[in-house]
Known about the structure:
Shape: globular
Distance between the termini: 121 Å
Oligomer: single chain
Radius of gyration: 42 Å
Strand content: under 5%
Order of helices and strands: HHHHHHHH
Amino acid sequence: MNTNGINHYYQWLALRSWGDKQQSAFDSSANSVNSIFQSLLQEELTKGVSNLNQFEQLSHHSLSKTGVESINHHFYSETPLRASKGAEPFIPMIEEASNKYGIDQQLIYSVIQHESNFRPQAVSHAGARGLMQLMPQTAKGLGVVNSFDPKQNIDGGTKYLRSMLDRYNGDIKLALAAYNAGPGNVDRYGGIPPFKETENYVSKVMKTYNTMINNKVI
């Protein structure tokens, strides 16, 4: 009897049994690793979705606060814009002059802003003084004793602006041109004088005035 064949057969059976056990252990380990991996993956996916939702909420919140609301406020808000801080002390004087001479307070404000930027002690290179930049002779003719006194200056400047509006039949652009370049030049050219300074002045004051009217400022 050939015992070598039998021995080989039993060795083969033993190796097969050992291999099956190793395969089973490997499969079990693989399944365990796979299960752990799937668990970790699911956890990370869940975190990712949660973080994404938080990001979307944060993005929407940020956009609504810094973007949409800002755009809506700029173009559609019915809340009046505020006057600049430098102008605040003079608003009551502007309102008083507005009522006294029948001129929109927004127009008076706009003139002051572009004449002196609300600096009561301002003096131009030509010698114009105060908030509404009155020349000494003009101020004297308007009854302004101290051009650096804000109340007197605003009253005198508004009075002069009223006279220019009356002279040009309520035409604000011509009145502003006369305020800047003098009525003689407006009359001479039959309209806004072709001076770059005056043209820019009228354009800037009108832009500020229209913006204030449209946004209900002061």
